[in-house]
Amino acid sequence: MGTTAEVAPSQYDRMTELKAFDETKAGVKGILDAGVTKLPRIFVNEQSLPLDQLPVVGGDAQAEGIPVIDLDGVSDDPAKRKEIVKEILDACGSWGFFQIINHGIPQSMLDEIRDGVRKFHELPTAAKQAYYTREPGKKFSYFSNYYLYKGPVTNWRDTIIANMAPNPVDPEDFPEVCRDIIIEYSKKVKRLGHMLFELFSEGMGLSPNHLTDMDCEEEMLLLGHYYPRCPEPEKAIGINNHKDNDFLTILLQDFVGGLQVLQEDKWVDVPYVPGALVINTGDLLQASL
């Protein structure tokens, strides 16, 4: 798959090309490794507006928008905790998104989990193929495009999913290249998630354990997205606009950024803040607030 040829609309069979791509089990990274210089047709985002026509907020308006909440003192200063709870509720009411700093996960671990995800995705194709599947329920799986056969455009993205809860973790279920950091990072995120659920519960005037007692913490998935270099980035999309159908998403960005939030019909960039984690209140939690 080193080159691609122009295909007349009457000759383009999208489903056949999707199946051919899926059956390689090589993902988007495999296409890049094959040396393509032109974006394959299934990845061309024909529904997008030109970059200069996208309604995006930037500059000072952006900087003053997405809240950044400092969690320092949340566990040992009752007055500070009350302030943080209010900041979180205000952010949920106006944005549904916010960033947190001083959250208890060291920068070294954030760097290590990013590195571990990247190392897996950059393994030779043969080393990854055993994990490639679209079947749910696996403790660890690798694939490209969850909605490959249903989405309007194929995303330029590969993904790993580690199913960390409710069932106990067996280290042998995970590839060695990222095994230890996935397990250790997930423990930290689980504790952070528990604390956030306490803060949400308190903000609603309820017992700190209210959301936990509703089993909001029962399931935990760790997703690691990988966006390799794209030969024609102006024609591609990393991920479609979407909502998260969960209670809570704790997202680690890298310095490249790219995350956007829809606010009053405008796409607002979520700036990269070193050491910060992005919190997205999912549909299920929004229904509870």
Automatic annotation (TrEMBL):
GO molecular function terms attached to this record: dioxygenase activity; metal ion binding
SUPFAM superfamilies: Clavaminate synthase-like (SSF51197)
Signal peptide coordinates: none
Domain (Fe2OG dioxygenase): residue spans on this chain: 216-289
Record keywords, A-Z: Iron, Metal-binding, Oxidoreductase
Family named by the database record: Belongs to the iron/ascorbate-dependent oxidoreductase family.
Protein name: Fe2OG dioxygenase domain-containing protein
UniProt organism field: Nepenthes gracilis (Slender pitcher plant)
